[in-house]
Specification:
six-stranded mixed β-sheet, 39 helices, Ubiquitin-like (UB roll), Immunoglobulin-like, disordered C terminus, 37% helix, PI3K_accessory_sf, seven-stranded antiparallel β-sheet, ATP binding, alpha+beta, single chain, globular
Length: 1168
């Protein structure tokens, strides 16, 4: 943007300058002779002002700078803090040349500024940065030769930059020196450099494919749902010429490719413009409004953009772009990214060790010595005693009996156990590879209450009881990352129960194994791991385990050959046995008899039922090394299983390395788009890995380094949890490795982080006053030159395909919600394209919204796979930090509440007026055929969201968080309560229906008709039933995806109990009850509430329930008298509803609702 500035000499204007020159005098060092015949100007050094707190608060408007010139002089100037480094450099060089030693000064392009940092002198390589962003210490800048910059472009600069992007919670230097971390860095650096070598040899087309990967459907054929709209397989595409903005509309066929479309466009363009020298190979097709390209030999219909546009009955718009221009941009972009040099590798020292003893050779039982616990925060006034519980776990399964020891009386916060040796009833040879030691520190307090004696009423006795409170916990593996048994004395740094996990269980085997980084604050456990007399003990390697299993198999075969042949067991019996557990989640309590029977037929499952691997794994006795060896041997021969089953194996219930390795082997075939769909869960599954390096980490890192779109979301998923103490080291190291492995992606991500910081500052402004006042303050903040430059040329964090050229302050505002989110509008970098609208939230946890929206995408894909398109409008949402993130704005949509207000229906009787929504759709969809199309869109989307919100248990549904687009598509927003966590007040649930289906909705579905038996509504019911049965068929996938998210720490998804709602809705635990119902009635039977207009139930509109809930919420403020008056109003509305529905048997008042907490069934239906 143009900037007008002036330069003053002693506060007088100097024409042609950009900066305020405070004094043009200079100082020559005493040993330097000028030789120019001019007198040396004396300069009073006491006039040089060093401001230590220059950048402590908000950046000042003007900054006093001290510039050190290469010819040994100093120059002081006053510069606006919004000035870029390049502008300062040009002005400094210009002024330096005007002095007597100016002949020594070269051109500005030969120089570079350097500044003082905390540890070093660093170059300012990015000269587009502003002074307020660079913030040089003491305002000192040193002008030096650009050639000197290469000595600073080292791993130090890269590490400093990356550490700043990861966040202040990650300390690169603090993580050095740990063997596992050092080996992880070394191994991942090798991986990154091998991929970087491949990228350096890319052609421009390959680089384009990496930065903007193609979005392709699985099949090259036109989807059946689209073919129904285009029976001739022909469709229209609008092509715009980038050079002159001329447009051409062409008809293409199903098998036409991007190249054939370019040829047709050039022919049409040449005829109109009389040009014949253009070739199809000189151009490429770009999607209008975003950085997405269509190229290659794929049919146009296979591109997801084309399918999405045709599904929306829109005409795809593409831009004809010059290949030369695009190639030049990509090559320049990659040359800039190669500017940083990597430090040379350090050779690993070769250390010779004595061959370790195999763990499987140790027959003694596991022992542990407990020395002491210190820094224990307990109730010193009420604690009766303090002690420690210790257990051994494999996944969620306890391997042996736990040990509990009370501490002798200690002093202050330290307790000594006199080197207490604890014995566990499991042999060392049977310890699984991923065994975890779980320790809990507890206190026992006395609870006393007065109790009258039965003999003498005047004589009171005290009834004393004891309460056990768990204070802190810690987990650690028994074997390290190199398979070696931990030995010797160690200190374990514990977590408090509020720090990391929300659960009622004593032990937390699924919790982190990372030590608490707040070592000065946490309790410490001092233990010694016994070495069993061996210098080094190691778990047997994979080949040893497989050979052991093979020898057992041969021995077993020989034994069977010596015995009479047994009749072959029919496969039917096995299928029936497994069928009892098919569809159930893995936590289901399988009886030992069935467990043993299934395990005995493991080879039959391998041959005939390989998809039932999760059930077989549930039958393994992990504390028996023979079983472990056998399952490792089987997994080597096991065929690949489906993606759905493979994801299940990455859950916390399967910690065994061979199992997880097999799961990753199956996921290797996953396409990038599908991996992106499940990326949220895959990142969370990293938390279930026992060590930093794992097959899952390598898979995700490789995909992120080979596909920048995956890398974008990989970065943000990791960084959003960097404020979680237990994940700071693990996720910080992954971010460090990724950023160092793709330096060209650093700049776009840094730009997004800068935007994030500015929006955080804007959100603080938004909370300082009234709505109109803060709107003006926000817009002024965004217009400020010190801020405006940050928003230029950025990728949209919600969708990196959209590039923004700047922010539009006049359209930005502060929204009405409690946390004052910001409505921010960005200019699209593509000319004549729609602006980009986002909502920035600071103070709300968006992780649950992100999870719910992702599950809606999974459901939508499952439905489309079964030939059903429910026109779901699933907007983007991303969590970027703790309680901070962005939400995509869906344009041309209104909430139900706003539609009712617009139509004057927002009154006490509005819930009973059915025409408001229908009237609104009719107004925006003329003529009649367009209205019918909108109603169809509404019916499909309403069915999809009814089923989806029911299955997911989405609560707190009302007219403010259900929206409708002008084209008829309905969608839900704000998923603050899921999995059946319905709001209650005074024990009364505010919501008594499984999903929202109001009068307005039914009226639209029936095309303005009240007939409950209308064919349109019957069709709607059928859609709901089909949608539900599809989700039920894939119930294991949905359950697994939620199960993988338990470690996220979401308040409504923190334990296995929270999954019970899914099990009930998907009917995975009660097959007999559901199987008695015909398929066409199953959905209505399961829901327990059905649909409005159905015969199974009667429910009240959501507005009545909401009014009743709000009345209960306001009871403390209203007082009893006013509460009763308001209650009568709600009660009368309820009575009018009863009369309108002719349901006279159910004249329940609001008072009776409070007492009986039910209003769903009539008496007759309840008896049935």
């Amino acid at each position: 943007m143009n900037r007008t500035a002036s330069v003053s000499h002693n506060h007088h204007h100097h024409s042609g300058g950009m900066l305020d020159n405070r004094q043009s005098a200079y100082v020559e060092h005493t040993h330097t002779g000028s030789g120019c015949g001019l007198p040396v100007t004396e300069y009073d050094l006491s006039d040089m002002r060093f401001s230590i707190n220059l950048w402590k608060n908000d950046p000042p408007d003007y900054v006093d700078l001290i510039c050190m010139i290469p010819n040994g002089t100093l120059l002081m100037m006053k510069a606006p803090s919004s000035t870029t480094i390049r502008e300062i450099k040009v002005e400094v060089v210009k002024l330096a040349k005007q002095n007597c030693l100016g002949y020594m000064i070269k051109d500005a392009c030969d120089y570079q500024f350097y500044g003082i940092s905390v540890f070093n002198i660093e170059p300012y390589t990015d000269e587009t940065k502003r002074l307020c962003e660079v913030q040089p210490y003491f305002g000192i800048l040193s002008l030096g030769d650009r050639t000197d910059a290469t000595s600073f472009s080292s791993d130090y600069e890269l590490t400093k930059m990356v550490s700043g992007m990861i966040g202040s919670s990650f300390d690169h230097h603090r993580t050095q020196g740990t063997p596992e971390i050092d080996d992880f860095r070394r191994s991942m650096t090798d991986l990154c450099e091998s991929i970087e070598v491949e990228r350096s040899q890319f052609t421009w087309q390959q680089r384009l494919l990496y930065e903007h990967p193609l979005r392709l459907a699985g099949s090259a054929d036109m989807p059946e749902l689209i073919r129904q709209r285009h029976p001739t397989s022909a469709f229209l595409i609008v092509v715009k010429n980038e050079n002159d903005q001329s447009t051409f509309t062409l008809s293409v066929m199903e098998k036409d490719t991007p190249l054939s479309l370019i040829e047709s466009t050039l022919q049409k363009m040449n005829r109109s413009q009389m040009k014949m020298n253009d070739r199809a190979g000189d151009y490429i097709l770009k999607v209008s409004g975003r950085d997405e390209y269509l190229f290659g030999d794929h049919p146009l219909i296979q591109f997801l953009y084309i399918q999405e546009a045709l599904s929306d009955s829109a005409v795809p718009n593409v831009v004809l772009q010059s290949v030369i221009r695009l190639e030049s941009y990509i090559n320049h972009h990659n040359e800039q990214s190669m500017g940083l040099k990597r430090a040379p590798k350090k050779e690993r020292p070769v250390v010779l060790h004595k061959a370790p003893t195999s763990l499987w050779d140790l027959g003694n039982y596991f022992q542990l010595t407990l020395h002491s616990i210190s820094n224990v925060n307990y109730d010193k006034t009420r604690a009766f005693r303090v002690g420690v519980d210790v257990g051994l776990y494999h996944g969620e399964h306890k391997l042996c009996s736990q040990r509990s020891i009370d501490a002798p009386n200690g002093s202050s916060d330290t307790f000594l156990f006199n080197d207490q040796i604890m014995d566990f009833d499991i042999q060392m040879r049977n310890l699984p590879r991923m065994t975890r030691l779980c320790i809990v520190i507890f206190e026992v307090t006395k609870l006393s209450r007065s109790k009258k004696s039965s003999n003498n009423k005047d004589n009171a006795q005290k009834d004393v009881s004891y309460n056990k409170n768990h204070l802190a916990w810690v987990n650690t593996t028994l074997l390290d990352y190199k398979d070696h048994l931990r030995t010797g004395r160690q200190v374990l740094y514990t977590w408090t129960y509020a720090d990391d996990i929300q659960s009622d269980e004593v032990f937390h085997p699924l919790g982190t194994i990372e030590p608490n980084p707040r070592k000065e604050e946490c309790a410490l456990v001092h233990v010694t791991f016994h070495s069993s007399g061996a210098e080094s003990v190691r778990y047997p390697c994979e080949n040893t385990v497989l050979q052991y299993a093979a020898d057992r198999a041969v021995a077993s075969l020989r034994e069977k050959q010596q015995q009479p042949a047994e009749p072959e067991k029919p496969l039917k019996d096995l299928k029936e046995l497994i069928a009892n557990y098919t569809g159930l989640d893995k936590i289901y309590e399988m009886v030992d008899q069935d467990r043993n029977a299934i395990w005995e037929r493991r080879n039959d499952i391998l041959r005939e039922l390989p998809e039932q691997l999760p059930i077989l794994l549930h039958c393994v006795y992990w504390k028996e090394r023979d079983d472990v060896a056998d399952i490792w041997y089987l997994l080597k021969r096991w065929p690949l299983i489906s993606i759905e089953r493979s994801l299940e194996l990455l859950d916390y219930a399967y910690p065994d390395p061979a199992v997880r390795r097999f799961a990753i082997k199956c996921l290797q075939i996953l396409k990038d788009d599908d991996l992106l769909l499940y990326l949220l869960q895959l990142v969370q599954a990293i938390k279930h890995e026992s060590y930093l390096e794992s097959d899952l980490v390598v898979l995700l890192l490789e995909r992120a380094l080979r596909n920048q779109r995956i890398g974008h979301y990989f970065f943000w998923h990791l960084r959003s949890e960097m404020q979680t103490p237990s994940m700071q080291t693990r996720f910080g190291l992954l971010l460090e490795v990724y950023l160092k492995g793709c330096k060209h992606h650093v700049a776009p991500l840094r730009k997004q982080l800068q935007v994030l910081e500015k929006l955080k500052q804007g959100s603080v402004i938004a909370k300082k006053g009234s709505k109109e006042k803060v709107k003006t303050m926000l817009q002024d903040f965004l217009r400020d030159q010190r801020n405006a430059g940050v928003f230029q040329n950025i990728q949209n964090p919600l969708n990196p395909s959209f590039r923004c050229s700047g922010v539009t302050p006049d359209q930005c505002k502060v929204m009405d919600s409690k946390m004052r989110p910001l409505w921010v509008v960005f200019e699209n970098a593509d000319l004549n394209s729609n602006d980009v609208y986002i909502i920035f939230k600071n103070g709300d946890d968006l992780r649950q919204d992100m999870l719910t929206l992702q599950m809606l995408r999974v459901m939508d894909k499952l439905w489309k796979r079964d030939g059903m398109d429910f026109r779901m409008n699933i907007y983007n949402c991303i969590s970027m930090e703790q309680r901070l993130g962005m939400i995509e704005v869906v344009r041309h949509a209104e909430t139900i509440a706003n539609i009712q207000k617009e139509k004057g229906m927002f009154s006490a009787t509005s819930p009973f007026k059915k025409g408001s929504l229908y009237s609104w759709l009719k107004e925006h969809n003329k003529p009649a055929d367009k209205l019918n199309k909108a109603i169809n869109e509404f019916t499909l989307s309403c069915a999809g969201y009814c089923v989806a919100t029911y299955v997911l248990g989405v609560a707190d549904r009302h007219s403010d968080n259900i929206m409708v687009k002008r084209n008829g598509q309905l969608f839900h927003i704000d998923f603050g309560h899921i999995l059946g966590h319905f709001k209650e007040k005074f024990g009364v649930r505010r919501e008594r229906v499984p999903f929202v289906l109001t009068h307005d909705f039914v009226y639209v579905i029936n095309k303005g008709c009240n007939d409950r038996e209308a064919k349109e509504f019957c069709h709607f019911q059928e859609l709901c039933e089909r949608a539900f049965l599809t989700l039920r068929k894939h119930g294991c996938l949905i359950l697994s995806l939620f199960s993988m998210m338990i470690s996220t720490g979401l308040p409504e998804l923190s334990s296995e109990k929270d999954l019970n709602y899914l099990r009930e809705t998907l009917v995975s635990s009660n097959r007999t009850a559901i199987d008695r119902k015909p398929p066409s009635l199953q959905f209505l039977y399961i829901s327990g509430a059905g649909l409005y207009g159905g015969k199974s139930t009667r429910t009240f509109p959501g507005e009545i329930q909401r009014s009743f809930g709000e009345l209960l919420e306001n009871f403390p403020q209203l007082g009893l008298s006013q509460f009763l008056q308001e209650q009568q109003t709600v009660d009368s509305r309820h009575s009018r509803y009863i009369k309108s529905t002719k349901c006279n048997k159910q004249r329940t008042s609001t008072r009776s609702l409070c007492v009986y907490k039910t209003l769903s069934l009539t008496q007759k239906e309840a008896k049935q």
